[in-house]
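Much of what follows relies on a compact textual record of a protein's fold. Here is one such record, which you should read through line by line:
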Amino acid sequence: MPMTRRAMLAATMSTAGAGAAFAATGCSALSKADAGQPTPEPTMIDQIPDNATILLQGDSITDAGRSRDTQDTANDFAMLGNGYAKLIAYHLLSRYPGKGLSIYNRGISGHKVPDLDARWDRDCIDLQPALVSILIGVNDIWHKLNGNYDGTAVQYGEQLSALLDRTEENLPGVKLVVCEPFVLRCGAVNDGWFPEFNERRALCRQAADAAGAVFVPFQTMFDEAVAAGSQPNVWAGDGVHPSAQGAALMAMRWIHETGL
């Protein structure tokens, strides 16, 4: 049976919980097979081969202080940074120890979509990942508001779509995960960010849908958290870079949306 939201959160917060969820799911599938019922549809992890590479890409939110010295060493503690990417990697490596996954964080602080495009061969294609997760977009508007960039919302959507197309062309069968750019209304974020930021969010969703990617609605998630009674700065003190709580919430939502 599908896990409840509470069960999903508990499972992602502890190895024991993940193991219990795995055992319960496996027993359920065996019971259905024994009873002559249809087996469940393959999940995302079933579509990722053993010894596959998983790549997490983006800007400073993904970067989160990662080590460049060990960036070529899969699953390295320092290379994974100190944000949501590390928490996702910890979950995947402990949840699927037999898969032999190699996980890399190649986010770079300050980057926009054109910056990803300029380094995409080296920092994506050459790694031959089976799954690529991308979180990009906040700098595309933040740098524009600061007068250091002139890219429009339409250009952001077109550039992101082109990057996803390029990825699929060079990596046949790759699984794509596109994360929604987000801001919290505090710190550096004020009314001047809107409505253009929401336009960019919509274009990100369109690009993800066109590419058949899994979409992770981070802005919706944080909006719901604030609507439930929390203060925006709990999740991101400057409105952009997530706190420990914010990174944990992101990792859990990513895991939920991908089914991993």
Summary: Confidence is low (pLDDT under 50) at residues 1-34.
